Amino acid sequence: MTEPRWLGAAQQRDWRAFVDGSVRLTEIMDRDLKAKHGLSVSEYEILVRLSESPERRLRMAELAEHASQSRSRLSHTCSRLESKGLVRRDNCPNDKRGVYAFLTDTGFEALDRAARDHVETVRDYFVDVVDPVDLEAVGRAFTAVLKRIDNG
Amino acid sequence: MTEPRWLGAAQQRDWRAFVDGSVRLTEIMDRDLKAKHGLSVSEYEILVRLSESPERRLRMAELAEHASQSRSRLSHTCSRLESKGLVRRDNCPNDKRGVYAFLTDTGFEALDRAARDHVETVRDYFVDVVDPVDLEAVGRAFTAVLKRIDNG
DNA sequence: GGAACGTTGTTGAAGGTTCAAGTATTCCGG
DNA sequence: CCGGAATACTTGAACCTTCAACAACGTTCC
């Protein structure tokens, strides 16, 4: 077996900062949303994506894609969101296999309330503590990562 | 209620790129480690932290801190790692409440094998696709986030 | 038309994480 | 040195995610 190309000291430091930072940051977002609004980050993400879609609805598969979740996970989570009254599902007329998920008015209101707090947390723990130049770099970096992941 | 300070378009784009990118990236790391070595990322992290500690051992509470996990979660995960023979636990002589977790030789070997693959994945999906200048910025950004989180 | 194959979405069970106690020990003021 | 408060770790149950299997429908091609 050939010797792997280990990371340089700086690369390792940067990579670790990201791993640690993102875990802890997500944890904070999660606690915050859950405490104030009874939503997990992934539930929140689902509501956001729906709210941004035309007519506030999306096919399950698309929603799963947008929210970076497996279809199975989305099914389960949607069931929960549905029983909370934030989301509803309907059959797709064109494709009888298909299902539309859409945001209810209650869901939209809940999202609106949650978003107001969430954006403050994002500022508080991320946007406002990171140098604006570095923030742009983070954007470029993860856009590159996403591109890498998307085309195999 | 006062109007929240919403994020600017660019800030939002950058923040989202991070959220999406980190979720998908972690998912890849997870699948990769699990498929090739039967380890989740969080198990891997535990082994790494132990391997870097003097005498390859750490108190449970410190390990939890280093690995960004709750103590409860660490207890459960350690039980699993212990049953795989990668980690063992012993009472702390000084503090009878305390427990040391330490890496077994088997654990060290498993980590060594896993790390060789893991570093390739990290390069493949992150380090090698991100501009070196941006990589440093990511490091700075998340170091700032960690600092913010640590001092309240 | 229909056989073979791919897609969509759901389900239940297995596995992992969180949460709220619970036990054991140490710390510290009086 | 005693009793209350704090700390270390574990446990079990509730909850969430993953995984494999499945039912239902669409697509292709003969």
Description:
Two copies of one chain form a homodimer. By secondary structure, chain A is mainly alpha-helical. In chain A, 68% of the residues lie in helices and 9% in strands. Chain A has six helices and three strands; from the N terminus they run ααβααββαα. Chain A has helices spanning 9-37, 41-52, 60-66, 71-83, 105-127, 132-150, and strands at residues 57-59, 87-91, 99-103. In chain A, strand 2 and strand 3 (99-103) form a beta hairpin. In chain A, helix 1 (9-37) packs antiparallel against helix 5 (105-127), helix 2 packs across helix 5 and helix 3 packs across helix 4 (71-83). At the A-B interface, helix 1, helix 5 and helix 6 of A face helix 1, helix 5 and helix 6 of B. The structure holds a DNA duplex (30 and 30 nucleotides).
What labels describe this entry?
globular, mainly alpha
Compile the SSE list and pairings:
The structure is a homodimer of 152-residue chains.
Chain A: H1 9-37, H2 41-52, E1 57-59, H3 60-66, H4 71-83, E2 87-91, E3 99-103, H5 105-127, H6 132-150
Helix pairs in contact in A: 1-5, 2-5, 3-4
Chain A binds a DNA duplex (30 and 30 nucleotides) through helix 3 and helix 4.
Distance between the termini of chain A: 25 Å
- Mean pLDDT reading of chain A: 96
Q: Structural class, from secondary structure content of chain A?
A: mainly alpha
Shape of chain A: globular
User: How is the biggest beta sheet of chain A arranged?
Assistant: 3 strands, antiparallel
Uncertain runs of chain A: none
Strand order of the largest sheet of chain A: 1-3-2
Give the radius of gyration of chain A: 19 Å
Strand elements of chain A, count:
3
Of all protein chain pairs, which has the greatest interface, and how many residues does each chain bring to it?
A-B, 55 and 54 residues
Order of helices and strands of chain A: HHEHHEEHH
The percentage helix of chain A is 55-70%
Instruction: Please give the count of helices of chain A.
Output: 6
How much beta of chain A, percentage-wise? 5-15%
